[in-house]
Amino acid sequence: MLLQRSESGWIAETPAKINLFFEVLGKRSDNFHEIVSIALPIRLFDTLTFKLTNDPQIQFDCIGGGQDVPFDETNLVVRAAKYIQQHFHVRYGAAITLTKRIPCRAGLGGGSSDAAAALRLVNRGWNLDIPDSELLPIAAEIGSDCPIFFYDVPTISKGRGEQIQPLPPTPSLWFILLKPPEGLSTANVYAECMPLHDGQFRQPDNLITALTRGNVQEIGQHLFNRLEIPAQKLWHRFSEIKRQLLETGCLAVQMSGSGTTFFGLYKDKTHAKEAFQFLHSEPAWGNEIFLVRTCV
């Protein structure tokens, strides 16, 4: 996440993420699920701008994103700004504009990334000097994925997602994202997960070793997402989208988070670009296609 001054206030570039590993260990007493996840920030960004106002209202506007972006307090950006304003007794307001490029309902964490950026933006814009160590638990309260976006490196998350440990930076990895127009309800995917679970709980140790070595082939061999099984049951085009990427010659294909975006991992930039050109020459069937690499 990059924050910098603008002519009228502050601006943040907020990255998407993909899940290289996602295991569900069971349902908790608080109705969340116990998970183990490895998330990787990628160079697909939304933009948030902040302008200080004397009026205490939080004014929110969004460019792009369509009808999937709410404008009321259910929007995580608005919720994050109001949380800081109320809990730290801020008498100012803000005009916040979100430029949306990360697809919604995609498993890419766009809303969570925007919320994490909003916390940092209002902290900077209102001159509060709240350390990240205090912002992180607030981020976890706003959304389980939010804390991972305080890190520019891969992270391993446990608990319901709030227990975060940064991992060493990876070498540049190249991906193609394929986002179909359909979305999946995260709640519905999780509801189907445990009844379909095989009881064999995986751990990410081999993937972490591969990431540490920077071995792209080995990374591809150890990708895993437990949520693919319920998603495949709920969504008839699951196999079709996955096959589209496999046919481009990638090392591995996986769904990110609860879907519906799939990513293909490629040997290098050259292979990824060739695959990107191939996909653009084929009928897209309404799919959005992105060529991306890791943030660091």
What does this structure look like?
The protein is α+β, with helices and mostly antiparallel strands and 296 residues long. The protein folds into 2 domains: 2-166, Ribosomal Protein S5, domain 2 (2-Layer Sandwich); 174-293, GHMP kinase, C-terminal domain (Alpha-Beta Plaits, 2-Layer Sandwich), CATH 3.30.70. It is 32% helix and 29% strand. It is built from 9 helices and 12 strands. It has helices at 76-87, 110-125, 132-142, 186-196, 205-213, 216-221, 228-234, 238-246, 269-281; strands spanning 2-5, 10-27, 33-53, 58-63, 93-99, 155-158, 163-166, 174-179, 224-225, 252-255, 262-266, 288-293. Strands 1, 2, 3, 4, 5, 6, 7 and 9 form an 8-stranded mixed sheet that branches. It has a 4-stranded antiparallel sheet with strand order 10-11-8-12. Helix 1 packs parallel to helix 2 and helix 4 (186-196) crosses helix 7 (228-234). It is globular.
Q: What's the number of extended β-strand segments?
A: 12
First-to-last CA distance: 11 Å
Structural class label: alpha+beta
Number of helices: 9
Helical residue percent band: 25-40%
Radius of gyration: 19 Å
CATH topology of the largest domain: Ribosomal Protein S5, domain 2
Q: Unreliable stretches, pLDDT < 50, 5 or more residues?
A: none
Number of domains: 2
CATH class of the largest domain: Alpha Beta
Along the chain, the helix and strand elements come as: EEEEHEHHEEEHHHEHHEEHE
DSSP strand (E) fraction? 25-35%
> In CATH terms, what is the architecture of the largest domain?
2-Layer Sandwich
For the biggest sheet, the summary is: 8 strands, mixed
**Outline:** globular
Average of per-residue pLDDT values: 94
